[in-house]
């Protein structure tokens, strides 16, 4: 019985830890996305192709997007 109870406590603690990590990662992702939108000037896209799927810039020589793998035009 005591060993079984310790096992459940460990399982609950691991679940809480995993949940905390997911919350922290989500918060960091939101702050990075907010910083991207708040740039004072647009990033240079000269010599780049914009992906029609994800909108990220790729080199003009690339055939597929390095971010999402979609086929690039041209």
Main beta-sheet annotation: 2 strands, antiparallel
Tell me the total number of β-strands: 2
What is the H-and-E element order?
HEE
Kindly state the percentage of residues in helix. 40-55%
Main-sheet strand order equals: 1-2
Structural class: mainly alpha
Radius of gyration computed on alpha carbons: 22 Å
How much of the sequence lies in strands comes to: 5-15%
Basic shape: elongated
Number of domains: 2
Termini Cα gap = 67 Å
Number of helical stretches of at least 4 residues: 1
* Parts with pLDDT < 50 across at least 5 consecutive residues: none
Provide tags for this entry:
elongated, 1 helix, 49% helix, 2 domains, 74 residues, single chain, mainly alpha
What does this structure look like?
Helices cover 49% and strands 8% of the residues. With 74 residues, it is mainly alpha-helical. It has 2 domains: 1-40; 42-74, no CATH class. The chain has a two-stranded antiparallel ribbon with strand order 1-2. A hairpin with a 6-residue loop joins strand 1 and strand 2. The longest helix has 36 residues, at 2-37. The radius of gyration is 22 Å and the shape is elongated. The termini are far apart. The model has no long low-confidence stretch (mean pLDDT 83).
